[in-house]
Amino acid sequence: MNPKLKSSLVFLAKLLVTLVPAYFVYRNIVSAPDWDIGDLYRLFSTKSILPFVLALVCLAASNFTACLQWKLLLERQSVHLSYGHLLKLYYVGLFFNNFMPGNVGGDVKKVYDIRMQGGQDTVGAGLTATFFDRLYGLFFVTLFALAMGVLFFVHDEAQRSFIWPSIWIFLGFCAMFAGLCSRRIGRLCTSVMSRFLPQSIGERLVHMFERFTHFRSFRLWCQISLLSFVTQSLRVFVHFYCGLAVGVALSISWYFYYIPLVAIVSALPISIGGFGPRELLAQTLFARAGVASLESVVIQLLAYFVSLILSLFGAFVFLLGGKSATKAVR
């Protein structure tokens, strides 16, 4: 198939997955009794400013801890870049994630930047660290949802069913990490896949599994677990403060229970920037907590707006070109 045609078909598929859920989100909002466009404006007031600022602070702090986790994963593979330089690359990646179609463009950009700073040998290290970093973040938010479900919602018949997706996703991540970091399981997986994949792809998979064995360190796992706990907690608080900004006084436990599921759906490269499926799922879930359709959607859009504002720093770094940072590799 022609690459341009294939790219166009993929984009059209993502556009469809974006627009169809968005239509149902809109229909759910306007079908509410006494709906009026003025409801949207009445959500915001002068009292919204402080929670919005706190959301910005929480997300900014989470970016610092997330970048530190990324640095630790790179250093385990002998890629040593200064934290300040990596932070710039991290923000450039955020900018590409937010302003490019799809939600993985920033990860590709980070891998490319690592390669430009460290040479061809750092491509695998950048790819492995970035891939593992994203997976571990999703794993931790799933752990949050599972913990909240067991602590607060296991006895609630209306909410208990949502524990099962968290359990299965959690077990899936555990199996994936076992396969990535275990030499024995890794060899078994690569031997099976090599029978069904071309030789060149099979060799790359073997090399990737070998890189993941660099992460077999108890100290490293303790470090990244602590960092992921702080990072993902702060990002859940971003949604909590965005909720307060629009007058939704909901317990933080609901956010720790629902936002992980929303985050996992948003991370799937099936729509444009996560739009559509993210808002529809949030609208469906938070309705069970008594949050109106409009407010639940606005919370997600406001959290995304917070991310857009902070990622503009990445646009500034990208436009400068970062030439002075090319000597950052030790």
Please write out the topology.
Layout: H1 3-30, H2 38-42, H3 49-75, H4 83-99, H5 105-118, H6 123-153, H7 157-160, H8 163-181, H9 183-194, H10 199-212, H11 218-245, H12 252-267, H13 277-287, H14 293-320
Report on the structure:
The radius of gyration is 21 Å and the shape is globular. It has 14 helices and no strands. It has helices at residues 3-30, 38-42, 49-75, 83-99, 105-118, 123-153, 157-160, 163-181, 183-194, 199-212, 218-245, 252-267, 277-287, 293-320. The relative contact order is 0.16. The protein is mainly α. Mean pLDDT is 83; it is low at 323-330. The longest helix is centred in the middle third of the chain and has 31 residues, at 123-153.
Overview features:
330 residues; single chain; mainly alpha
Short précis:
The chain is built from 14 helices and no strands. It is mainly α and 330 residues long.
Query: Radius of gyration, rounded?
Result: 21 Å
Secondary-structure-derived class? mainly alpha
Approximate helicity band: over 70%
| Low-confidence runs of at least 5 consecutive residues | 323-330
Number of β-strand runs? 0
Largest sheet: none
Total of DSSP H or I helical runs spanning 4+ residues: 14
Judging from the principal axes of the Cα atoms, what is the shape?
globular
Distance between the termini: 44 Å
Q: Would you list the SSEs in sequence order as H and E? A: HHHHHHHHHHHHHH
The overall pLDDT average reads 83
Strand content: under 5%
